[in-house]
Task: inverse folding
């Protein structure tokens, strides 16, 4: 039963990360278009920047968990590369339980009211008053949620289900 549930959570998390990776294309396009819009068209550069900001926030929120799943974080590996695979797996579980779970829970609880207020008011960007700033704050909470789910998978899931 637990293996089935964790496999479902892992598959859903993997699917959302796969979908989010495609945000890099419109982000790149918006960053490319900012200067021509500002210098040639003389309009819409600020809108392109604001749109790019909230897309980038969502992208980074997913990228943190994607990097964890791919085991691609920068890490000091002075001694650990010599450890047996079982020891490394045990250390990864301990690290998720001691580091990632508390951090993600703190982010979820501390950011909940800030995120809810921002989303409820459909907060706009302060400098431009363009809509969408609430998505930047929601991305922070989403990052905490994805990190929490990944930490739970890393701690309690069977090894074969943690990283599809």
Result:
């Amino acid at each position: 039963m637990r293996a089935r549930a964790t496999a479902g959570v892992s598959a859903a998390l993997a699917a959302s990360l796969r979908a989010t990776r495609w945000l890099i294309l419109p982000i790149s396009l918006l960053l490319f278009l900012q200067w021509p819009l500002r210098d040639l068209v003389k309009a819409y550069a600020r809108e392109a920047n604001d749109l790019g900001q909230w897309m980038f926030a969502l992208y980074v929120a997913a990228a943190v968990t994607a990097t964890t799943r791919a085991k691609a974080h920068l890490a000091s590996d002075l001694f650990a590369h010599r450890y047996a695979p079982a020891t490394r797996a045990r250390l990864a579980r301990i690290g998720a339980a001691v580091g990632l779970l508390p951090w993600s829970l703190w982010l979820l609880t501390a950011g909940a009211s800030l995120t809810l207020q921002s989303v409820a008011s459909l907060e706009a960007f302060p400098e431009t008053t363009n809509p969408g700033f609430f998505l930047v704050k929601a991305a922070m909470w989403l990052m905490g949620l994805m990190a929490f789910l990944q930490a739970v998978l890393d701690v309690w899931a069977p090894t074969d289900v943690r990283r599809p």
Notes: The radius of gyration is 19 Å. The CA atoms of residues 9 and 149 lie 8 Å apart.
